[in-house]
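Notebook entry, structure prediction.
Reason for the run: the old model in the group folder had no record of what sequence produced it. Starting over properly, with the input documented here first.
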Amino acid sequence: MKPFWQRRLLVPALVVLALNVAAYFGYTLPRAAQERTMAARAVVLREQVAQERARVEGLRLRARTIDANAVDVGRFYGALGRKESLLKIQEDIVGVARQVGLTLGSRSYANAAVKGSDSLARFRITMPISGSYRQVASFLQRIESLRHFVTVDSISIREDSDAGRSNRTTSLNVALSVYFVDSEPRDGD
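New structure, fully documented this time:
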């Protein structure tokens, strides 16, 4: 037979054990599962926050690019002349070529509207020039620094050698474009 104190403590020990098992299955186990679910959800939410931050940064970069483009467009339109200034621009281009010592051929001109713009037009100048490489490079550098908005559209290069290497010249066919504000009404408007 068991001692008295062991018989008396058996029932309360079993009750405490049953309460512990009930507490484990009723509170501890669901709470642990809930914490694991919340931890997994927190990881997912952190990833979503990181993705949203990257998206917001991309949008900020796009907004800065749009702002910079707007400034550039404003500067572009501010640098444009009127159609009346084309003669002065042509004289400046020819003057630059003569200043650097280039030989000019006969020039051709074309005027066209710029697609997508109601008031912007393009005046294209094609001019054959001949001279040394240094003269050609100086001409192109000076064209870029004119106060008028002039672009170099294309350059066709052909090297001629007349009498050996000492008399080498470079012949170019340079196509330049001058953009200007055209206030004349267009056909089809």
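Summary: The mean pLDDT is 84.
The old model has been moved to the deprecated folder.
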